[in-house]
Amino acid sequence: MGMTDDEVRARVASVPHWYHPIEVSPGIITPGANAARAVLEILDLPADCRGMRALDLGTRDGFFAFELERRGAEVTAVDYMAMADSGFAVASELLGSRVTYVRRNLYDLSAADLGTFDIVLFLGLLYHLPDPLGALRVVRNLTRQRMYLETLVLDFGRELDELPLMRFFAGSSWAGDPTNYWGPNVRCVEDMLAETEFATRRATSTGDRCVFDCEAIASPAAAYYMEIATGQRAPEGTGT
Ligand SMILES: C[S@@+](CC[C@H](N)C(=O)[O-])C[C@H]1O[C@@H](n2cnc3c(N)ncnc32)[C@H](O)[C@@H]1O
Fold first, then answer.
1. CB of 64 within 8 A of CB of 70?
2. Residue 1: what pLDDT?
3. How many angstroms is it from 191 CA to the middle of ligand 1?
């Protein structure tokens, strides 16, 4: 038997802090302040995701994971938080969701473990990661086809737009949040994407945020030097 609206509201109220506004029952939306709906519009995800495997990285309350499930995808959601410490567990229960929740750090994910995905969402996460290129390599290894990146972007001023620049946030110097590490400009994100074997099909800026619609590509030279730099391969030479 289904829950009454009052029972649904009580389950919603049992979560101390909602990040995403999720419609968990007709007309009942969780009180998250995040602009997920506006981001969803810009993402322009395929309307029909049936037959696709999708991955939502840093899922938090799961807004995007549940949306991909609604569109027919088989979805895996990852976060290093326990699902009971965000709104995910309650939203999943109320939606009767079958999204698989994997509690793990992004840097510990591999295709050997999770397989690869037709659609990967990497939203609101890049600037929280101390090694952004390393993170993009992890994401690339999990991506079969499409990857959507949404991030904070900085504007360093007109004459610096063309330079790939990224500002380091020491301590809690950005928004008082010690989990923020890097603020790249749009050009820097595009260049890091190219270096990690992604082609940017579309970049849509909305002031201090930007959505990048990307395609996995093969760029053997970039991959070769990245493997040497990260110690997975030794540089070729004549010495012993
Ligand atoms: C700013 S929220 C973004 C939520 C959602 N993706 C969105 O765009 O609305 C970042 C989420 O990523 C998670 N997160 C941050 N660093 C992570 C890491 N290294 N591995 C896994 N999850 C991480 C946080 O717990 C949080 O839920």
1. no
2. 61
3. 23
